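ok so dumb question maybe but i'm new to this and my supervisor (M.) told me to 'just get the structure for 25S rRNA (Uridine(2843)-N(3))-methyltransferase' and walked off. so i did the thing. is this what she meant?? sequence i used:
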Amino acid sequence: MTGKKLPSFKKSAPLPPRKVQKPPGPAPPPVPVVEPDYAALNLQHPADQQVLLDIFSDAFARVLFADGFPALLQELKQALFNRDFAAAFGREDFLEAYAARWSPTRALGYGAVFLGIRAHLKKLVDAPSKDAAAASPRGTLRMVCVGGCAAEHLAFASYVQSQNLTGHLTLVDSGPWSSINALLEAKTTSPPPLSAYASATAKATNHALLTADQLALTHTQQDILALEAPALAEVVGARPVIVTLMFTLNELYTRGGIAKTTKLLKNLGEVLVDGSLVLVVDSPGSYSETALGKEKKRYPMQWLLDHTLLETTEKQGYSWDKLESDESVWFRLPDVLNYPIPLENMRYQLHLYRLEKAP
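this is what came out, is it supposed to look like this??
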């Protein structure tokens, strides 16, 4: 007779011996919190970064909290994915959505870029005013931004504020950015709104990012590729200036073609004053490539840029010196920042050139 097999059981492991709790002694001294050296990291303090995000969220609250914002954003994303830049930046509602969604990260990232090249920017600053009545004499920095607008506007505003400068900013774009620029200008020169329950200290320390006379702003709505050298000279002015193409140069190559974009870069060499800078920031790697020739062979934007600027001859009367170059840089947002919608980190390539003209 065969009986049923009894189930087997594994012997449990012995329990570990109990630890005897010792009476608590004196608490260890707190570990000191060492704040990062933001200046060394070429970053503004998170509190200053939050000020810029608050300006964006206040300026575009109507857009950010609208029921139709997700659908509008999806339509805009499709135009950007198709590289249909004329459609993406041709409608004011698209520009508002773009400014609310992508410009905040760009503004903080561009601010880090400006701080990273501040040694070069200092050489462009005019001597401070000698007006004895001025409480804080400030030098003046001039910048011309080709393409974009909202992000460059806030980044430059934060830079001149942090460096105690006055600024002249010219924004050149084919899109209808005027109302957005006017809105941001008002927000940067007015104290941010406070809750009715704000403390007396908060009210006393509440102030605008800039004084009313700290930043002179000009917006020119026109296609930069359509400007001949004399018209371009009027835009950049007759003083040393930094010209920026922030996530714009690859768009110009794509929309306007190699010939027109090359002509623009060569015209800049002709009309800019000696010592002026050109700063290019764009997507890294294959995101910034342009097709050439019948076979549509793709070339990196950086190669086209260097080929145009650095292979100039003395017969032209000017040359370019490459001061800074990085093929891939990460700008990461601190976790402590707050914004109504999620924001992503930004990766970019950077190239800085200085113009040298024969005496």
